[in-house]
Design a protein that fits this description.
The structure holds two protein chains of two kinds.
Chain A: H1 5-26, E1 30-31, E2 34-35, H2 39-64, H3 75-98, H4 100-111, H5 120-141
Antiparallel strand pairs in A: 1-2
Helix pairs in contact in A: 1-2, 3-4, 4-5
Chain B: H1 3-14, H2 17-34, H3 41-48, H4 57-82, H5 88-102, H6 106-140, H7 144-161, H8 166-180, E1 183-184, E2 191-192, H9 206-222, H10 243-265, H11 270-285, H12 298-313, H13 315-321, H14 327-338, H15 347-350, H16 352-373, H17 377-384, H18 388-407, H19 410-428, H20 433-456, H21 463-466, H22 468-497
Antiparallel strand pairs in B: 1-2
Helix pairs in contact in B: 1-16, 2-3, 2-4, 2-16, 3-4, 3-9, 3-14, 4-5, 4-6, 4-16, 5-6, 5-11, 5-12, 6-10, 6-12, 6-13, 6-16, 7-8, 7-20, 7-22, 8-20, 9-18, 9-19, 10-11, 10-12, 11-12, 14-20, 18-19
The chains are: A mainly alpha, B mainly alpha.
């Protein structure tokens, strides 16, 4: 069974709706004249669950009508998805212990491969340009006290 | 204070050299980022939001207004030159604007768009200044029940109008509301959904959410997507429109302004609908409807004026009621709140300098756009030729560093990964992430007013139906929902029987 767009929407609504309802219930719904901290999460969560079910019903009706569905995750988008998220994650992991420039280097070098066909030499050029622009804008322009390079493990 | 005194006060604030400089900076940066292919105003504003931190409230809000207009203008430039609309509202401009560009008249199209926008912006500014004081007086009488009902209507009608259907629209808005409840509860101080993470106690950082949902997710989606038609951008042609262009454009700009100004105030109607409506009207009143789609100048002037007028009057509910009618406005409202400014009926009385300064800055920003950006068009065209491979790496780096500067915390970057993934999933599911932002901003407002109204009525939900203003809002909401669901059901049935 392919996960197509409508089914994915239903899944997202059901998962987050269940979390909001269950966890929110624990915060206390309160009474109608004194709604507790959990009231709003429970209401939003129940709404999400209803929307999730409604989406499922709609999808089932469309399926019975013989509508063809395509996968919500085309293979061509998997590479950029994973590579871009990995690049951001690497930036977050490195910026604290190593400083801005090493983290930027990792970000640029990883994200470069999100799209195929880039040459290595070009990547170096991009790295230099991006580093210069970012340091110029944020470090000198806005005067934000980054540690450009830090050796603290 | 009468209108002119207020505008004079605003002018005083707006044209101090320092504020003028921030307005200019905002307009330039907004255009520079907004002109990049596939980068619409929402992404531009969220990317540049961190740059405004650390300025005084006045300077930062003026700069944000500049970014807002710069981004919108940059978006229409991209539509005309490479046929890649950054968001739905400039999609209409693509139709005839890009055809003009292919005929070597890109310069004229850009100038008509800029002049039409400026004209619409001027009218829009006057409308806000005129409508402001009386509307604020009415809004002052709103109690918790009215506010809760109003938020409800704004959310519901926006969700229902979005492409993708009511179920997905309402679902995404609810998801945003659920995320909006993360952090400490305003009334009881209880920490909700923090899962033991101290960084979440103040709630999810708005800027991180916006950058993740839009910038990061958008980059992922755009890699490998078609890169537009860059060939036609080489030849701009004469910049100044011909006398014939002027003769044909000004009535179109006038009609567009009128329609945009009206539609902009309505929640959910927004920019896309106003430019689309303006295009339809131009085509039906034109003596040469066959020219539309082949480079008719009215097809640029009408929609561009309409969406600028709408983006101006959209500030009316945002600033005066504190209720944004569109996702872009929700973003602006969120940005204002980051700077400690709470828009609403009291803003005009409590912070007259800020309020009128912002109103006049919008006009000054529009003026700066016309006098600065038309001569700079060659520079923007060169930006368009930057290969996407270079572009996304830079935008990603800018996003990460910008987010990091706000809290100097790696947690913000990890949140960025989470919201980037969530934004991608929402788009893959055919849900509009912009509605998520709207729910996120409006959710807490709804909760606060809903709970207060229920407490005041001692738990009687009839309070929302007993008060006339509140009842009107609820009825409007139900009507919008019914109208969209029934047509949806009809369409669904039609599909099944086909």
């Amino acid at each position: 069974m392919t996960i197509h767009a409508d089914l994915l929407a239903a899944l997202i609504f059901l998962v987050f709706g269940a979390i909001a309802t269950v966890v929110g219930w624990g915060y206390g719904f309160g009474t109608f004249s004194a709604l507790g901290s959990g009231a709003m999460p429970v209401l939003a969560g129940c709404g999400l669950l209803i929307m999730g079910v409604a989406q499922l019903v709609q999808t089932a009706a469309a399926r019975r009508a013989g509508q063809a569905f395509v996968s919500a995750f085309p293979g061509s988008e998997m590479r950029p998805l994973l590579v871009i998220l990995a690049a951001v994650l690497a930036f977050g992991l490195l910026v604290g212990p190593l400083g801005l420039l090493p983290a930027l280097t990792a970000l640029v070098c990883i994200s470069w491969f999100a799209e195929s066909g880039g040459r290595r030499l070009e990547m170096l050029a991009v790295l230099v340009v991006v580093a210069v622009l970012i340091v110029a804008i944020f470090y000198y322009g806005l005067g934000i006290p980054f540690r450009l390079v830090a050796w603290r493990f | 204070m009468d209108l002119f005194a207020s505008l004079a006060l605003g002018l005083q604030v707006a044209v101090t050299p320092i504020n003028l400089m921030y307005c200019l900076l905002g307009v330039t940066l907004g255009t520079a980022i907004g002109v990049l292919p596939g980068v619409g105003p929402i992404i531009t504003i969220s990317l540049l939001l961190p740059l405004t931190f650390g300025l005084t409230p006045e300077a930062s809000i003026i700069m944000l207004a500049g970014i807002f207009y710069g981004a919108a203008y940059g978006g229409s430039t991209t539509s005309i030159l490479v046929n890649l609309p950054g968001e739905a509202s400039s999609a209409v401009t693509c139709i005839d604007g890009h055809q003009m560009a292919r005929q070597g008249r890109a310069g004229a199209a850009l100038a008509v768009a800029a002049l039409g926008s400026f004209f619409a912006g001027t009218i829009g500014t006057l409308l806000i200044a005129l409508a402001g004081p009386p509307l604020a007086l009415i809004a002052m009488r709103f109690g918790a029940a009215e506010y809760a009902a109003l938020v409800f209507v704004a959310l519901l009608s926006t969700a229902a109008m979005t492409r993708g259907g009511v179920v997905k629209g309402v679902g995404v808005a609810l998801l945003g509301m659920a995320f909006g409840s993360v952090g400490s509860d305003v009334s009881t101080g209880m920490f909700r959904f923090t899962f033991g993470i101290p960084e979440l106690r103040d709630g999810i950082d708005f800027a991180v959410l916006a950058v993740g949902l839009f910038a990061v997710a958008e980059i992922i989606g755009n890699i490998g997507a078609p890169q537009g038609d860059a060939v036609s951008s080489r030849n701009i042609g004469r910049l100044w429109p011909s006398r014939e262009d002027f003769r044909r454009s000004w009535p179109a700009a006038l009609r567009g302004t009128g329609m945009g100004a009206l539609l902009g105030v309505l929640p959910g109607a927004g920019l896309a609908m106003s430019s689309f409506t303006a295009y339809m009207v131009e085509r039906s009143v034109s003596k040469h409807p066959e020219q539309f789609g082949k480079g008719a100048v009215e097809g640029v002037a009408g929609p561009e004026s309409a969406n600028n007028a709408a983006s101006q009057t959209a500030f009316i509910p945002t600033l005066l009621l504190g209720i944004p009618g569109s996702p872009t406005m929700a973003l602006m409202l969120g940005a204002f709140m980051i700077h400690g400014v709470q828009p609403g009926p009291r803003m005009m009385g409590d912070h007259p300098q800020l309020f009128w300064g912002l109103i006049v800055s919008m006009w000054v920003g529009n003026l700066l756009l016309v006098i600065l950006n038309l001569p700079l068009i060659g520079l923007w065209v060169r930006l368009l030729r930057v290969p996407y491979h270079w572009l996304y790496v830079f935008v990603l780096a800018f996003a990460c560093v910008g987010v990091f500067t706000m809290g100097s915390s790696s947690f913000d970057i990890y949140s960025l990964v989470f919201f980037g993934a969530l934004g991608y999933l929402l788009k893959a599911a055919g849900c509009n992430p912009a509605l998520f932002i709207l729910g996120f901003i409006l959710g807490p407002m709804f909760e606060e007013n809903f709970r207060r109204a229920m407490t005041l009525s001692r738990g009687d939900p009839m309070v929302f139906l007993e008060r006339p203003i509140s009842l009107t809002f609820v009825l409007i909401g139900i009507a919008v929902l019914l109208a969209t669901t029934t047509s949806f059901v009809r369409r669904g049935r039609a599909e099944v029987t086909e």
